[in-house]
Amino acid sequence: MDILKVNDLKVYYKTLRGSVKAIDGVTFTIRKGEVLGIAGESGCGKSTLVNFFVLPKEPMYHAGGSVILEDIDITKLSKNELRKIRYEKISIIPQYSMDALSPTKKIKVIIKDIIREHGKHVDHTLIEERLSMVNLSKKVLDMYPVELSGGMRQRATMVVSTLLNPKVLIADEITSALDVSTQKFVIEMLMGFMDRKIVDSMIFITHDLSILYQIATRVMVLYAGKVVEIGPMEEVIKSPVHPYTKALVYSLPEMNVRFKEKRLKGIPGHPPHLLNPPAGCRFHDRCPVARERCQEEEPPLVKVGEDHYVYCWEVKV
Length: 317
Ligand SMILES: Nc1ncnc2c1ncn2[C@@H]1O[C@H](COP(=O)(O)OP(=O)(O)OP(=O)(O)O)[C@@H](O)[C@H]1O
Ligand SMILES: [Mg+2]
Known about the structure:
The chain is of the alpha/beta class. It folds into two domains: 231 residues, Rossmann fold, CATH 3.40.50; 66 residues, no CATH class. Helices cover 30% and strands 26% of the residues. It is built from eleven helices and twelve strands. The strands form two sheets. An eight-stranded mixed β-sheet has the order 6-7-8-3-9-10-12-11, sandwiched between helices. Strand 7, helix 6 and strand 8 form a beta-alpha-beta unit. It is globular and about 65 Å long. The two termini are 28 Å apart. The relative contact order is 0.14. Bound molecules: adenosine-5'-triphosphate and magnesium ion. Magnesium ion binds next to helix 1.
């Protein structure tokens, strides 16, 4: 069952030089019970996409398409209506979540404010239970965010984001600044929220495919504001199809052995500026297999396996 359906979504930024087309015609769904991974290099639009779901802020604006969350198109909601569904239906642990909590309020005030804003009763047992799930003692309730370490602040943010049992939880680059063993610990805590059915589904964002491999059911790869490939995690890692996904996968250190013969020697160039993205496939000027058509026409959606799709002119099925 699909919990969230995103169709041809466009999210741009208004700037003095014109519109930055950060998300430009993105279509996908999130199913109940799954972890959808979103991968792609810096600036490809990952945070723009998910921030739009929970807190669209100027200069970001909706430039087209729909986002259906349980039969409601959230692109049509007012700021106030969006505020109501945030935390209850969809919630985010934002990028840089170590600094996401209001510095002037004690943790208990932050927690109670959110619960009351949504017209719910404060359940102290539940709050303590949730804190212990992320290895925090109830002492943190009486502390200000600055009194906690970065890791503790991040775990307090996890508790705040999941307090009201959102259907969809978004985790945006929450493992990027962590060492490998802390990454594992954070991933286990997140999976705890899924296992206990506190959240139904998750979007997990990272530029690091090896982390996604540990947690995601499916993966969506973005390049310059567009989807290039979406499919089952295992299949995409083992047999990536789009030339950009191949480059991402073959550059994983652990994958070098397995893919030795096929490994690309990196991709020259860098992603296009999204003020004036190129016509055709946005990857064409870095793509080893691009032809003339790729410079002119938008690539078609091609089914390459069960539940596995790519946008590419040069894919042979
Ligand atoms: N406030 C803004 N005004 C104009 N352009 C913006 C703004 N915020 C982001 N952008 C642009 O939108 C594009 C997508 O940015 P976004 O932060 O969504 O990328 P990302 O994939 O999350 O990158 P990262 O991996 O570094 O977090 C980039 O080209 C960025 O420069
Ligand atoms: Mg980001």
